[in-house]
Amino acid sequence: MADTRCANPELQLDVDLMMLEYTFYHATQAQFDFLFSGCQDEDKAAEATRLLTIFDSFIRLFAQDHPSYEKTPEFHLNVKILELLVLLSSRSTGLQQQFSPDMSKKLHDETVENLKARRRWLIAHQRQAQRRGKQLAGSDATDVTDDVEILIYNSWTRHKSGSSVSSHPSPSDFLPRFLDLLTRFMEISAEIAALRGTPEEKWMQIACEFMLQASLESIRIRLRDSGNEDMFLPRLDDCFAWGYFDAPDELIGPDDQAHVDEELAFFNHLFRAPTNDGAVDESPPRENPTWTKLRNEYLSEFHIADDASASSQTWRVDRLAQKYPPESFQDQLVQFLKNAWDLAMVNKPVLVQIEEGHLKSLGVEGAEFDDFMVRVGLREDLNGSLKLKL
Could you tell me the residue ranges of all domains in the chain? Predict the structure, then answer.
């Protein structure tokens, strides 16, 4: 029988969607497999790269053939999860060279914009604290006051590397740092919260340690390369610039107003205090006290003497790295993302289900599934399962 799917646009879309979902699923699963291996398995690294390349090619073709097709919010969420996994993988020795010059420049530009966004938040937050004359978070649960928080930040800027938002490294040398991944993690979390409600305390712990890991990485590089005027690194306060913020117009300059409004609308519900019944309390809105407490606990880990030497700072960073091993944190992060991905994948793609020997999403299992396989002309391999080769 002749293949007539291209003669029927509706059939072509259905088939292409199945292939898109199939390649997407296996590309994402391969990234998880590589990361769960500790980024040490060369075969898993090669397979992750191969399947990612296939998915990237297919999604480009899909966009060309179906330009008007609107993908679901869940699809876009899963794309962001895959992107974060790829960036995590790229930090390992196995996949560092996979970014093209154009992609490296794009990622670098995103880093610059993300850092600018954190500093807009910091400026507005400090103005609000001064205006209200009380603690930054506006909560009785706050352990770190405005003055102490500023003292912590200042104690880590005594030994500067000359970095600033305007000094850019070579985009061709770009390798994603924890702060780059942190912003993407917050974006994913905000979308999950919009779909599923207020984040749980486990998420807050991961997010707070993410800020700590980003800080340790940046401080370590800053101390190592002190005096390098070309360095472009976030400060400690940049890494911890996350939380609820109610921004009156007078606290923000007109040039930043549009940016801040968009950022607040997107991120604020991550940090806003819920009411007893789970609904958000709008009057007056305030920061979730659990987030305030955890954020301050992790920030307090950086409390050192104001006149601490560079060697003392290095000792503190080394101690914190032992207390919070980055490898252990990455395992927690990947597992969290895997759980989020599993929830988003309520039903596996149809072709993946067929590989597994069922169509549970359609209620087709057992003998009925075997009959279906015969009718569509598919056969199991010698191991008793069907594998669609990518």
Answer: 11-94, 106-157+186-272+285-324, 357-389
